[in-house]
Known about the structure:
Low-confidence stretches: none
CATH topology of the largest domain: D-amino Acid Aminotransferase, Chain A, domain 1
Helix content: 25-40%
Largest sheet: 5 strands, antiparallel
Distance between the termini: 46 Å
Number of domains: 2
Strand order of the largest sheet: 7-6-5-9-10
Shape: globular
Number of strands: 11
Number of helices: 11
Strand content: 15-25%
Order of helices and strands: HHHHHHEEEHHEEEEEHHEEEH
Amino acid sequence: MDLFGIYKYRFPYLYELEFQVNQLKNSLLYNWRSDKNFLERKFRIKQGYNFDINNPKTLNEVIQWLKINERYDFHTICADKYRVRDYLSKHFSEEFFIPILFHTENYKDIELKKLPNEPFIIKTNHDSGHYLIVRRKEEFDWKKVKLDFKYWMKKNYFYNEREWQYKNIKPCVIAEKLLICKNGRIPNDYKIHCINGIVEFIYVASDREGENKRCIYDRNWNPLFFTWAAKGKNASSVRGEEQLPPPTLTKMISFAEIIAIDFPKYVRVDFYDVDGKLYFGEITQHHGGGFDQIRPFEFDKYYGSLIKI
């Protein structure tokens, strides 16, 4: 943590000042732009080429088209990490979901005595990336954590990448039971990518408390040698050791394709396998916002060609 980071926790008004400055900067530089203009500009910076919003050819281009042209109320529910359970309960039983141990709409409720007495992951429901893995709650300074959540809850993730489904989510904080395998590690994250309602490839994130390596496989668990990662990351720094197929792979594929019925062009559905028990993770409608690079580029073009606009 840098010096400012230390002092903003000691003097919370500095945190408020930082937040307000960032809000003002974003408003002046980005938020006034139309969605189309914003996406075209950011896509050019992140992907290195222009795209035609009306004639997308690559998968990342199609994702931009989807962000503009497919906006339905249920998309907001599916992006909400808390309320998505109600949406999916028509298809799946309660044991499919990770138990929620704590829930609040007020960041002030985040206190040591109110939090679970077992390992958990605490996160916001309305965005991506704001979470904390907690194995022993006594090891954390909850005054600092509470302050972080105060401002995380104020952020509207829609403006980051113009993913409309995040715009109208009512923010809250949830703590889910931390899934732990028999070996003491948290399970791999299986990100199932469906195109035209069919599972096309599976992106496996392993060592999620360490280097967070990734491998990609087709639905039959044959390795696919491409990466889908942020600009600047090379394949050797991303791809990890090859993984064995999880015991629940058949269920993952079946369940993902049930969910994909409501997302006929593209959707990503995440699962965890804990020693042979399947858990739902989340629904992601636009992987990486369509700004992460698929390399080699031919894979981006191939998967994009499968989707008819």
